[in-house]
């Protein structure tokens, strides 16, 4: 009996050590009786199921795993109620309390700084999206003749978007060692569009800073390797585009430089795919008043000559997909519209040395550029000449 008593302290020590070598995610979800709660690890491109539990009336749950060598993203997925994203570090014991009615937005976190940051970032993005959408709805409902009022709304939207990007930049610079900053940089407007644009030189500074910092701490992390390579690839692309621009400016060929950019639905559309067509290559932006006037003329020409072989390939210099997509819909533009959402850093605009918008290039059926910046009567006459 004495020997057993001597062993008991060692048993407790072993149990304590075992507990310290694990992370825990536990808590309680109200109004979730008989619902399935899934615990998943979030990878670069998909999530991986780890565990699940059918919740009782009390709604209590507990998940655990081996000690983490690096901060890791996990998901709590409640059937028919949404997802909570967690950022778990080492042996954290995280407490989550939530309600089925607002599971993905109204939850509370304890004992995890990283998970708290993720919640804050999601709330900030959602609030900004709601605010921007209200402004877009206001813009859409305004009298189209109220050009000054509509421009003020557009300016307000662009300002709000830029303020949010500045907020993300400040967050990254204040937390250069946190995977929450990685999460912040890869926030998205929708499935196809990120908030931050690595091809924008200002935004690229934040990606580069974080990649350098995290690479020092977690060089073997798959996520850090992805970020580091993402930055290197972007810098290489910018360098190649500068080289291509110099080559274009020194070239004496009449053949047009090809463009391959995503359309509104995300599918890449090549300018070179418009073989044997008369092409108007148009550069514009949703926020530009003059562009809207040009689009009215283009619609008239498109209706008149499209069946005879006219195609319009239009490149937007927007930075917000939301505003770009809304302008295409409200102006009812039926032709090809693409954008890399890089604003003044637009690669096609650089390739064609576009200094101001609206701008256009006329390309004949042989692929030769035969006109530049033709508007109004000059553009009408050029189309008449080509379609005689």
Structural commentary:
Helix 3 packs parallel to helix 5 (201-217) and helix 4 (179-185) runs antiparallel to helix 5 (201-217). By secondary structure, this protein is an alpha+beta fold. The chain is elongated. The protein has three domains: 21-110, Sandwich (Immunoglobulin-like); 117-243, no CATH class; 260-386, Glutaredoxin. The strands form five sheets. It has a five-stranded mixed beta sheet, with helices on one face. A four-stranded mixed beta sheet has the order 4-1-7-8, sandwiched between helices. Strand 7 and strand 8 form a beta hairpin. The protein has helices at residues 2-20, 113-141, 147-174, 179-185, 201-217, 222-250, 289-305, 321-330, 347-351, 376-386, and strands at 22-30, 36-42, 47-54, 60-66, 72-78, 82-88, 93-99, 108-110, 188-190, 193-194, 260-262, 268-270, 278-284, 310-316, 336-338, 359-363, 369-372.
Which key features would you list for this structure?
388 residues, alpha+beta, Glutaredoxin, five-stranded mixed β-sheet, four-stranded mixed β-sheet, 10 helices, 44% helix, 24% strand
């Amino acid at each position: 009996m004495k020997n057993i008593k001597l062993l008991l302290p060692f048993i407790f020590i072993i149990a304590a050590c075992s507990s310290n070598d694990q992370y825990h995610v536990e808590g309680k979800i109200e109004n979730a009786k008989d619902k399935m709660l899934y615990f998943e690890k979030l990878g670069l491109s998909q999530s991986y199921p780890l565990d699940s539990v059918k919740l009782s009336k009390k709604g209590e749950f507990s998940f655990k795993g081996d000690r983490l060598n690096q901060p890791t993203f996990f998901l709590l997925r409640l059937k028919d109620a949404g997802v909570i994203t967690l950022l778990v570090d080492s042996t954290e014991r995280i407490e989550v309390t939530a309600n089925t009615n607002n599971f993905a937005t109204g939850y509370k976190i304890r004992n995890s700084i990283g998970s708290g940051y993720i919640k804050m970032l999601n709330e900030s993005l959602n609030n900004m999206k709601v605010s921007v959408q209200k402004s877009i709805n206001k813009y859409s409902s305004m009298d189209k003749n109220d050009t000054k009022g509509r421009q003020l709304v557009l300016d307000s939207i662009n300002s709000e978007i830029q303020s949010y990007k500045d907020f993300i930049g400040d967050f990254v610079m204040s937390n250069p060692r946190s995977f929450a900053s990685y999460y912040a940089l890869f926030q998205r407007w929708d499935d196809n569009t990120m908030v931050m644009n690595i091809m924008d030189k200002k935004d690229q500074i934040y990606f580069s800073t974080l990649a350098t910092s995290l690479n020092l701490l977690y060089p073997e992390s798959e996520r850090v390797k992805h970020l580091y390579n993402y930055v290197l690839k972007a810098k290489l692309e910018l360098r190649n585009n500068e080289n291509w621009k110099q080559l274009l400016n020194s070239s004496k060929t009449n053949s047009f430089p090809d463009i391959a950019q995503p359309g509104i639905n995300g599918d890449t559309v090549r300018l070179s795919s418009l073989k044997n067509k008369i092409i108007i290559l148009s550069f514009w932006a949703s926020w530009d008043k003059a562009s809207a006037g040009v689009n009215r003329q283009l619609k008239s020409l498109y209706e008149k000559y499209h069946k005879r072989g006219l195609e319009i390939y239009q490149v937007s210099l927007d930075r917000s997909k939301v505003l770009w997509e809304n302008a295409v819909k409200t102006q009812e533009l039926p032709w090809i519209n693409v954008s890399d959402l890089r604003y003044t850093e637009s690669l096609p605009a650089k390739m064609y040395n576009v200094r101001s918008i609206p701008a256009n290039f006329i390309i004949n059926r042989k692929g030769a550029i035969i006109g530049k910046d033709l508007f109004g009567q000059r553009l009408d006459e050029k189309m008449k000449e080509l379609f005689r």
